[in-house]
Design goal:
This protein is of the alpha+beta class. The protein folds into 4 domains: about 5-225, 2-Layer Sandwich (Heat Shock Protein 90); about 230-400, Ribosomal Protein S5, domain 2 (2-Layer Sandwich), CATH 3.30.230.10; about 410-545 and about 585-615, 3-Layer(aba) Sandwich (Rossmann fold); about 545-580. Strand 10 and strand 11 form a beta hairpin. The longest helix has 28 residues, at about 380-405.
Length: about 650
């Protein structure tokens, strides 16, 4: 093979590299087909599509810097120092290559293998979709000594490309304002952007990403020389690793795809076991996160389990024990990053890889290199195997505990906890359960509820922090055992969301520090041990009012300070009472404010980013104090209505 420099020189990227497949109007009619959704997740996907194109220039060796700015007007600017979008007119076209890229659905350099060997934004619909879903967009390209500029509204150009100056620099700058008629919200979240770009900087050691939020005057710079190993160390900063340095597995394999065409896959993996019990394995293709995994993740898991079993048996460490996949991954933090040409995803949002070649490549590299590592590092190998053996034993103990508490049938109420006031409805889709802090509030909730479809389960104080507890010990805790039996579906790796008894699981705690802590402990339980419950959108937070504003027989409930001031202005001379806890409300008030479906407010818990959620739970609920302290200091100004 030639050198990397020869490889780059062979990449021709000019106007003829841009291949057009027409059409754009469908994007505004069905945006969800192209960006997944029109909620906050879809909104942020717009930024990712633009930045991914800049990352492609980095992977191709032509860019080293990307600047992402949230402007004061809510627009986003993405600037890179790559080659710049070609501005000439491709053969057979009447538009410039730049206009084709930004206004035609299937146009881009990713369809020409001479322009990009590997890319994250492979479908060629990225920036054009962003353009279609933006109120306005401005594209500025520095290329061939000129500065080219074109502006657009709702995906349509305002006029032809203008040359607005001369320069010896190269690069592309895209600024866009999302169309508020297309999205549920157009407010970008700094933490969400930060997490994405930090991850991409870990996966591309040559790039520097500057993220600036002009709305609040905040700036972060991301550049990491350590690659995936540094990434794993970062993820484990709130955990306790069992050995100092992550295991690094790297290699390149070539296999034939389904059409017989040879495909080369670069594999870059780092993994490190911790003393925890939760698996944190994240995968990427061409630096794009694949939250739903896919073939590369399957290849890793298969090879990891087989290699550890083979090594353990060859060295008489397992005897009659055969490890399952969950045993080998308990407490494991790993990053699986691959690069390959033309990866096949299961959707435009690229959340799950479908390329069979990737599975073979990853499995082959992991099998070879992990085996070699274990043989060369027997002391670490023993630590890894002991961790897996303990997981095996814990899983067996947990299975026996679950068998002892599992109900004989879904509707057999005699085995339900005595504290549970169940509802009469048996269709889970129509039922809801309130998990209520304290016996007093639980009593009010039982009297105030609609017994037809609302169940009440009072809990006493703070439940066990499952982030620090071994899974087989959870059911020894009475409150967790009662919760598990009441909700149905089981617990841990065997949790079956199809067997739950309620499709609304509502956490109802006091609006104070202790109440927030109890809610966090419950959310940790659901996320770590009943995760499909959260993923399916069945978990909610009740939002009880903070104030009662009353005058004579007239009363109104306020859920924040702004509402309270508004009601005071509407009712001069009114009195205000501050609710310190749910127990201060009588059954009727609790029903009217917090439980009546016609009037209440519920906050549905969603997992916008599983990796970020995993990090937050580890930070907030783990043993290490310093990361938790840093998080609290950074976010203290965001806390409102806090009683201390």
């Amino acid at each position: 093979m030639g050198s990397e420099e020869d490889f780059r020189k062979s990449e021709v990227y000019d106007a003829d590299s841009i291949k057009a497949l027409k059409g754009l109007e469908a994007v505004r009619k069905r945006p969800g087909m192209y960006i997944g959704s029109t909620d906050t997740r879809g909104l942020h996907h717009l930024v990712y599509e633009v930045v991914d194109n800049s990352i492609d220039e980095v992977m191709a060796g032509f860019a080293t810097s990307i600047d992402v700015t949230v402007n004061t007007d809510g627009s986003i600017s993405v600037v890179d120092d790559g080659r710049g979008i070609p501005t000439g007119v491709p053969k057979g076209e009447t538009k410039s290559a730049m206009e084709l890229c930004l206004t035609d659905l299937h146009a881009g350099g990713k369809f020409d293998q001479n322009a990009y060997k590997v890319s994250g934004g492979l479908h060629g619909v990225g920036v054009s979709v962003v353009n279609a879903l933006s109120e306005w967009m401005v594209a500025t390209v520095k290329r061939e000594g000129k500065i080219h500029r074109q502006s657009y509204h709702c995906g349509k150009p305002d006029g032809p490309i203008e040359i607005i100056g001369e320069t010896q620099e190269t690069g592309t700058a895209i600024t866009f304002l999302p169309d508020k008629t297309m999205f549920e919200t157009v407010v970008f979240d700094f933490d969400t952007l930060q997490n994405r770009f930090r991850n991409q900087a870990f996966l591309n050691t040559k790039v520097t990403i500057n993220l600036t939020d002009e709305r609040v005057g905040k700036k972060e710079v991301y550049h990491y020389d350590g690659g995936v190993s540094a990434f794993v160390k970062f993820l484990n900063r709130s955990k306790t690793p069992l050995y100092p340095e992550p295991v690094v597995i790297q290699g390149t394999k070539t296999f034939s795809d389904l059409k017989g065409k040879p495909v080369t896959v670069e594999v870059d993996i780092a993994m490190q076991n911790t003393d925890g019990y939760n698996e944190s394995v994240d995968s990427f293709v061409n630096t794009v996160s694949t939250p739903d995994g896919g073939t590369h993740l399957t290849g890793f898991r298969t090879a990891l389990t087989k290699t550890l079993n083979d090594y353990g048996k060859e060295n008489n460490m397992l005897k009659d024990m055969t490890l399952e996949g969950s045993d080998t991954r308990e407490g494991l933090t790993a990053i699986i990053s691959i690069r390959m040409p033309d990866p096949q995803f299961e959707s435009q949002t690229k959340e799950k890889l479908g390329s069979s070649v990737a599975q073979n490549a990853v499995a082959s590299v992991v099998s070879e290199q992990l085996k070699q590592f274990l043989e060369e590092n027997p002391s670490i190998a023993q630590i890894i195997l002991n961790k897996a053996k303990n997981a095996f034993q814990g899983r067996e103990a947990a299975r026996k505990a679950r068998d002892a508490t599992r109900r004989k049938s879904l509707l057999e109420s005699t085995s339900l906890p005595g504290k549970l006031a169940d509802c009469s409805e048996k269709d889970p889709s129509k039922c809801e359960i309130f998990i209520v802090e304290g016996e007093s509030a639980g009593g009010s909730a039982k009297m105030g509820r609609d017994r037809a479809f609302q169940a009440i389960l009072p809990i006493r104080g703070k439940i066990l922090n499952v982030e620090k507890a071994r899974p087989d010990k959870l059911l020894d805790h009475e409150e967790i055992r009662n919760l598990t039996i009441a909700v149905g579906g089981g617990i841990g790796k065997d949790f079956d969301v199809s067997k739950i008894r309620y499709h609304k699981v509502v956490i109802m705690t006091d609006a104070d520090v202790d109440g927030a802590h109890i809610a966090t402990l419950l959310l940790t339980l659901f996320y770590r041990q009943m995760r499909p419950l959260v993923e399916e959108g069945y978990v909610y937070l009740a939002m009880p009012p903070l104030y009662r504003v009353y005058k004579g027989k007239t009363q109104k409930y306020a859920y924040n300070d702004e509402e309270m001031q508004k009601y005071l202005a509407e009712m001069p001379g009114a009195n205000v009472s501050r609710y310190k806890g749910l127990g201060e409300m009588n059954p009727q008030q609790l029903w009217e404010t917090t439980m009546d479906p016609e009037q209440r407010m519920l906050k549905r818990i969603r997992i916008a980013d599983a990796m970020l959620a995993d990090q937050l739970f580890s930070t907030l609920m783990g043993d290490d104090v310093e990361p938790r302290r840093e998080f609290i200091i950074e976010h203290a100004n965001e806390v409102v209505n806090l009683d201390v």
